[in-house]
Amino acid sequence: MVDRVSVGVAAFLAVSAVAATAAYAQKDAAQEGIEAYREALQDGNPAELYEATGEELWKTPAGPKKASLEQCDLGLGPGVVKGAYARLPRHFQDTDRVQDLESRLLTCMETLQGKDPKPYVESAFTAPPKEEMIALAAYVSGQSKGDAIAVAPKHPKEQAMYDLGKRMFYYQSGPYDFSCATCHGQEGTRIRLQDLPYIPGTKGAAAGWGSWPAYRVSAGQMWSMQWRLNDCFRQQRFPEPVYTSDATIALSMYMAANASGETMKTPGIKR
């Protein structure tokens, strides 16, 4: 009887080992297929068209003051675009706020061009005001492509924003009791063909932060980070966040600071 049991257990373990090996092999093959698919997407990224539009918007006089955005200070001095996105969000003395790219652009549009930020905040992401913001985000972010992410909370308001972002990341609520961590709080997970980056880790945070803004092939749309965060709130069944609110900037600060030291790959391309 003991011998039969031993043989049965050994046979079960052998079959389990074969099944596990086959499952891992399938997983590896699937992962290779996904990587090949993503590599193919990189050729002719439509985001380049948005970058060109954004550059034109940056340099063209507009608004009641008939001024361009070329003197906008994104943190490295008036008009300096190269490398600026890799250092955002950050605290700005003139507003005494921690700002991400899109909130800072609104500040520059208001002060330099005399534009009212309200239509940009309240419009839908597919409406012309937001399309303008997304194109500008594509242009500015593209000027940091290949740069190291360098977001290290030093100012007290930067640290407070990071802490708020971390609390928000783990905060569970809504009809499904979701949090950001539900999808992005564990390593090695995936939904269909989409890897779910582990945001508390440096590599995962870089995957989640360093490739946005990005062109979404399935939607045929260019998404800024603000839009991406808005969609995360939607999927959690949370109320829609106010565009460029502290809630969205806090989550951006948490991701960007966790990703510090990794490489910017913006604007990216997604399935």
Could you provide a short overview of the structure?
InterPro entries: Cyt_c-like_dom, Cyt_c-like_dom_sf, SoxA. The chain is mainly α. It folds into two domains: 1-41; 47-270, Cytochrome c-like domain (Cytochrome Bc1 Complex, Chain D, domain 2), CATH 1.10.760.
Can you give a write-up of this model?
Heterodimer of SoxA and SoxX. Its EC number is 2.8.5.2. Keywords: Electron transport, Heme, Iron, Metal-binding, Periplasm, Signal, Transferase, Transport. This is SoxAX cytochrome complex subunit A. The protein is mostly helical and 271 residues long. The protein is built from 10 helices and 7 strands. It is 51% helix and 8% strand. A 3-stranded mixed sheet has the order 6-5-7. Strand 5 and strand 6 form a beta hairpin. The protein is globular, with a radius of gyration of 22 Å. 33% of the residues are buried.
Which regions have little confidence, pLDDT < 50, spanning 5+ residues? 7-25
What's the SSE pattern? HHEEHHHHHEEHEEHHE
Strand content: 5-15%
User: Could you say which overall geometry the principal axes of the C-alpha atoms support?
Assistant: globular
How many beta-strand segments?
Answer: 7
Pfam families: SoxA-TsdA_cyt-c
EC number: 2.8.5.2
Organism: Azospirillum endophyticum
Protein name: SoxAX cytochrome complex subunit A
Q: What is the topological layout?
A:
Layout: H1 2-41, H2 47-59, E1 90-92, E2 97-99, H3 101-113, H4 118-122, H5 128-142, H6 156-170, H7 180-184, E3 189-191, E4 194-196, H8 202-209, E5 214-216, E6 221-223, H9 225-235, H10 246-258, E7 268-270
Parallel strand pairs: 5-7
Antiparallel strand pairs: 1-2, 3-4, 5-6
